[in-house]
Automatic annotation (TrEMBL):
Residues 576-650 form the Helicase MOV-10-like beta-barrel domain. This is RNA helicase. Residues 309-328, 1204-1223 are annotated as: Disordered. It comes from the Eukaryota.
Length: 1223
């Protein structure tokens, strides 16, 4: 027993000893490991300190305060420190001159200008041996340190870090973000890259440059600079707007709950309740998801109004009337016979014109076994009814015994209207029941089914009609055959001699063969789009500096291919030439009006495929006349031509496409493509330190800190400028955000051209080194600026020059009174040509070289025309300023042509235009999301820096940063009522009318229009007499000719003619005072024929594009379309008015006094924009014409409420069963 006990004790002791030994070993191992880690840490810290001793951009040093101001102080005369950096400590109150501070600073070099700037990141301490307030210093031990410990410079490495945070403050230029790193971080919005406009509560991620400091565990010290701010999370999706307030609304989604949006973040889209939208949102502390981008997918209003379901289109076999079908039993009971009462008659009426009239009899017969009483007849309720009761009186009461009948006689007139219309008559009977009938009236020279003998209408296949798809395929095949069967080419002489030596020749930039094959061999456009969205093209990618050149160059190639396809419509299978002077003339009907346009300099290829001659004879077009072109081939072709027939193919010059390609290449070298995607503002000292004083005078400040009321007053060349125009000029002259483009946003009639001319005058007068390039996309606008400068009398003829293309000279398109200011360009290098500048009799100068152009202070041309200067040699800083007028109408690569010719370091770019009106014309527009249709102006305004931010920018800025965008707000064109229409619809009511009171003669004109449209004429003193917008509803028929995709509407054409003819007769307006806008060429011709037949001088009749930038006292808009068929095709091809807000805006904003819209309200009401136009006419009481159905009135809420009240008041003595019948 004893031995057993001893054994257990020995074993327990041995086990305890083993455990103690194991524990001791583990402790020893841990100590060794900690010692090793400590040594490694010391080595890392020593390495960091060793590295930091080498000079870097981040350093810690000591300096002396040399200047103290209220909000800041200066250290060592160079380091700027805001007082806020002391964080409101006690030390901040006692800082004064000669106080020494230890601080952390960061040095940065601008990558473009090379300018070095140093920013104080943090004040670390106050050196105590020079602290003059001991008591205060004693309380601030953390802010003081001995002088001997702060006398050296310590350098630190830098590293990047991403820091999540929440926006907790926004004060104009400063954004305050709360992070987990410590104190909130203040971010300068202008100097920080952002892809969106942050709002309070947004969850964001900061990309920071931080100090590497060995004193911290993770070696990460102070935040030196915030490089960019991004949303912590972006949520994309679709939803439906379920709530809408004045300043914002709510979107309901299926996967992300609700999303909140603010109206101020929207640009072109005005939301409506029920709209289906595509959104982009960021996470927000207060509202969970905040929308930052919104795009309409489908409007909430009824998009399909079935015209075939109205009572007028459903007659019974006897033709006695109409019975309404559908779920609305109340409506059905109104139009049906009931209680044994039958109403019969011929309710379809066709009149030759608006002055024609016919009589119709309606018989009411009692076929029941009991007596009925007719209480009254309710006539049509329109102001100028087409159906008038002749006998008996409407309120005549009569008894109908069984088998008896009574006869009502009606007179139906045209009432000055055209097209189709419906008017309702309702009989009220004793016993509280009613029976209604609808007269269907057609006025004009079309049959009841809307067809003309030689014209095909929608739904008719007689004669084939226009087949857009087969026509496109035919042209596509012709181009493919043209490429696959080349032969030897014999070229004709060019217009002008080709330069042998060019300083900077442009490459050819030919279309890649694989892209040709993709477009020409794909069986459908959908497959083309799918292929272009895949590598290597990837056109659906969001545009960025990395993919910009690839995407834009591909889009330019696609545009060239599509234009070549469209040019095939001009080809002739067999034609012959006629000798004329030194040319061969080719007869082509209406060639001057052809689209795409045939221009001087384009080429004609003549081949004879039915012979053994495979030679391609290529001639150059020297003149384009109305129905023929004059061509020069090679002289051998001219000499042996003997009337043979040839197959003709037209080709165009490629110089415009080559210039666009070359501009992109030059932008990469001169500016860098990041210039086109600005993310931050590098604020510069003012180029010209000018301000506006209280009297609107331009004051040049003598000192940067001086008061703007002191200094030298610079005279305005045009003292009539308004305050917004003056402010735009001041903002450009200051140029604090240069080299970023400044945008002058000029809505219709706000004086953009006047502002540009004054800006040119001020730059030339006050910036001695300025040399300007002034360009526009169109020749007409360039001539207008030239004319204004010539008439201004400020610049001498030698100060400015208008460069024109040779095609302008050959077409004799140069205005004679401007010829002395114009010149053509010779791109040949100096000394490579002989002869001086040639001057014509009109003063036009030919063959201007670089040495001649360089002498002028202002060079005016088109965007493409100025591209010739890229092939010349100029010093990098030769041109200093670029002004682009109508910048919204130019393709982005076109606008880059002038921009790439100024230096980024000294250049100033100003874009003037209106992104809400017509944009660039593109031929390849298969996919709207590819941004090919966007101008540089519109794209910049969609970026964060150029967007509206009403929290930061208040007052007259309309929410734009005045350093980047100036909005011109005073409209000189329209009377207040007309202005308010497009102002409210497209410009958020930002415009102000210059014309406050309507002139007496204009009131009389509006009264005459009311008489013509059969509207009640108010007294001259009433507000209604000053309403200038009218909507005339015409339910006509849109037609096509068999060989054209264009549309025309005879009823609308007749109505247009009637209005103009009556205005002529009353001597209220002449042809120069009226403009007629219609989107279709065939309607232009149809309207013009009505004037020719009446032997009247027509006013200007044209498309929206022809009226852009113009104005007339009276504008008449013919919308043409009355059928929803092919509306999608119209939208894709950028014609027509449906679903085209920019085109609608241009059409509505041309009128000075009166705007008359003529169209089919049943179709137009399917479009959200037109719905608002119609609603406005109903609100103003200026609608006339065809009857509006209840479906339209339900969508037009304001009109529905008003008319519903009227109906209730009129029929309050009847029962409520059938209150609604027709408006």
């Amino acid at each position: 027993m004893f031995r057993l006990t001893a054994w257990f004790v020995r074993k327990a002791f041995e086990k305890s000893s083993d455990q103690q030994l194991s524990l001791a070993e583990r402790i020893k191992q841990c100590e060794e490991k900690l010692q090793q880690e400590d040594e490694e840490s010391k080595e890392i810290k020593a390495e960091i300190v060793k590295q930091a001793m080498e000079p870097t951009d981040c350093f810690q040093t000591t300096g002396t305060i040399t200047e103290v101001k209220a909000d800041y102080f200066i250290i060592d005369g160079i380091y700027f420190v805001p007082r806020a950096m002391l964080k409101n400590t006690e030390a901040a109150k006692h800082v004064e001159e000669n106080t020494k501070l230890q601080f952390l600073a960061n040095r940065k070099t601008d990558p473009v200008s090379g300018e070095v700037s140093t920013k104080v990141v943090k004040v670390l301490s106050v050196v105590d041996n020079v602290w003059n307030h001991g008591a205060a210093a004693a309380e601030e031990e953390d802010w003081t340190q001995p002088a001997d410990t702060a006398s050296t410079v310590t350098y630190f490495k830098k590293n990047r870090r991403r820091e999540p945070g929440t926006v907790i403050g926004k004060d104009r230029d400063i954004l305050t973000v709360e992070t987990d790193a410590g104190d909130p971080i203040s971010v300068n919005i202008d100097k920080t890259s952002m892809t969106f406009v942050p709002a309070l509560g947004d969850y964001v991620t900061l990309a920071c440059m931080v100090q590497m400091d060995g004193k911290f565990v993770d070696f990460k010290g102070e935040v030196l600079e915030v490089e960019s701010i991004e949303p912590s999370r972006i949520v994309n999706g679709t939803g439906v707007i379920i709530a809408l307030e004045e300043d914002g609304g709510e979107i309901r989604t299926t996967t992300n709950g609700t999303v909140i949006f603010m109206v101020e973040t929207l640009t072109d889209y005005r939301p409506g309740k029920g709209d289906r939208v595509e959104f982009r949102a960021v996470e927000n502390k207060h509202v969970r998801l905040r929308c930052i981008n919104l795009k309409l997918l489908a409007a909430g209003v009824t998009k399909t109004l079935d015209m075939a379901t109205s009572p007028s289109h459903q007659t019974n076999e006897t033709g006695r009337g109409s019975v309404r079908n559908g779920s609305d039993e109340r409506a059905g009971s109104l139009w049906a016979d009931k209680h044994g009462i039958n109403i019969t008659g011929d309710f379809d009426v066709t009149l030759k014109d608006g002055q024609d009239r016919e009589l119709r009899k309606v018989v009411i017969k009692n076929e029941s076994r009991k007596q009925h009483k007719i209480l009254k007849m309710l006539p049509p309720r329109s102001e100028a009814p087409q159906v008038c009761l002749k006998s008996p009186f409407a309120h005549t009461q009569s008894y109908l015994f069984p088998g008896e009948s009574v006869e009502y006689e009606f007179e139906i007139t045209g009432a000055g209207l055209f097209g189709r219309n419906e008017e309702s008559c309702i009989w009220c009977f004793g016993g509280s029941f009613r029976i209604g009938r609808i007269f269907r009236i057609t006025v004009g020279q079309e049959t009841s089914n809307g067809k003309l003998p030689t014209i095909n209408t929608i739904g008719s296949n007689v004669g084939g009609g226009y087949n857009g798809k087969s026509s496109y395929c035919k042209k596509q095949l012709a181009l493919l055959n043209m490429r696959r069967a080349p032969g030897p080419v014999l070229n004709g002489p060019r217009i002008g001699m080709r330069a042998n030596f060019i300083a900077n020749p442009m490459p050819s930039y030919n279309v890649p063969s694989e892209l040709y094959d993709l477009i020409l061999t794909s069986p459908s456009r959908a497959e083309v789009c799918n292929a272009l969205e895949r590598p290597p093209y990837c056109l659906s990618e969001e545009l960025s500096p990395k993919n910009y050149a690839r995407i834009k160059k591909t889009l330019i190639h696609l545009e060239e291919i599509r234009l070549q396809i469209e040019f095939r419509k001009h080809d002739l299978d067999r034609a012959h030439f006629t000798p004329e002077e030194s040319f061969l003339a080719l007869e082509v009907a209406n060639i001057a009006e052809a689209r795409p346009s045939i221009l001087v300099g384009d080429c004609v290829r003549a081949t004879a495929p039915w012979t053994n001659d495979s030679t391609i004879y290529q001639g150059v077009i020297h003149r384009v006349l109305h129905s023929r072109v004059l061509i020069k081939f090679d002289q051998t072709f001219h000499s042996r031509y003997n009337g043979e027939s040839y197959a003709i193919q037209f080709t165009f010059g490629r110089s415009s496409f080559r210039k666009q390609h070359h501009a992109i290449k030059r932008m990469q070298l001169t500016h860098g493509l990041e210039y086109l995607f600005p993310e931050r503002i590098n604020v510069q000292e003012p180029m010209l330190n000018v301000r506006l004083n209280a009297r609107g005078e331009l004051v040049l400040e003598e000192s940067m800190e001086g008061d703007c009321t002191k200094g030298r007053v610079l005279p305005w060349c045009n003292a009539a400028l308004n305050r917004y125009q003056k402010q735009a000029i001041v903002n450009v002259l200051r140029g604090e955000a240069r080299p970023m483009p400044h945008i002058i946003f000029g809505p219709p009639g706000t004086g953009k051209t006047v502002t540009i001319v004054e800006l040119i005058h001020q730059l030339i007068a006050n910036v001695p080194s300025a040399r300007l390039i002034v360009v526009t996309p169109s020749n007409s606008a360039a001539y207008l600026i030239t004319e204004r400068l010539a008439r201004g009398g400020v610049l001498e003829p030698g100060d400015f020059i208008r460069l024109v293309a040779m095609s302008q000279v050959e077409r004799e398109a140069v205005p004679e009174h401007l010829a002395q200011y114009c010149a053509t360009v010779d791109v040949a290098e100096e000394r490579s040509t002989f002869g001086d500048v040639l001057v014509t009799e009109s003063g036009l100068r030919m063959k201007f070289q670089a040495k001649h152009i360089g002498r002028h202070r202002v060079t005016i041309s088109t965007c493409l025309g100025i591209g010739s200067l890229m092939m010349m040699h100029f010093d990098p800083n030769h041109f200093t300023h670029v002004i682009v007028d109508e910048a919204g109408q130019g393709l982005e690569p076109e606008v880059l042509i002038p921009i790439c010719q100024v230096s980024r370091t000294v250049g100033s770019v100003t874009l003037v235009g209106d992104p809400k009106q017509l944009g660039p014309m593109v031929h390849f527009n298969e996919e709207q999301t590819w941004t090919s249709h966007l101008s540089l102006l519109e794209r910049l305004l969609s970026l964060r820096l150029y967007s509206i931010d009403r929290q930061r920018f208040t007052g007259d800025t309309a929410g734009y940063d005045p350093r980047l965008v100036t909005l011109l707000r005073i409209n000189y064109r329209s009377i207040p009522n007309v202005l308010s229409l497009y102002n409210d619809m497209f410009y958020d009511s930002a415009l102000e009318p210059y014309v406050k009171e309507v002139a007496d003669e204009d009131i009389q004109l509006l009264g005459a229009i009311r008489d013509i449209l059969k509207l009640p004429k108010p007294s001259d003193s009433s507000e209604d007499s000053r309403k200038g917008f009218f909507f005339c509803g015409i339910d006509g028929t849109n037609k096509q000719s068999p060989d054209s995709p264009s549309w025309f509407n005879s009823a609308e054409a007749c109505m247009v003619h009637k209005i103009v003819e009556r205005l002529y007769r009353g001597e209220r307006c002449g042809p120069a005072d009226i403009g007629i806008i219609t989107p279709y060429v065939m309607q232009v011709r149809s309207i013009r024929r009505t004037f020719d037949a009446a032997m009247l001088e027509p006013p200007k009749i044209g498309s929206v594009e022809e009226f852009q930038g113009q104005e007339r006292k009276v504008i008449i808009v013919s919308t043409v379309r009355s059928s929803s068929a092919y509306l999608a095709h119209d939208s894709n091809t950028k014609i027509g008015f449906i679903s085209a807000p920019k085109r609608i805006n241009v059409a509505l904003s041309r009128a000075k006094v009166a705007l008359i819209v003529i169209g089919n309200p049943k179709l137009l009401a399917t479009d959200k924009t037109w719905m608002r136009v119609l609603q406005r006419a109903l609100d103003d009481g200026t609608y006339c014409g065809c009857t509006l159905g209840s479906a339209i009135l339900r969508n037009v809420s304001t009109a529905t409420r008003r008319e519903g009240n009227n109906l209730q008041r009129q029929y309050d003595d009847d029962d409520d069963e059938d209150d609604e019948y027709q408006y």
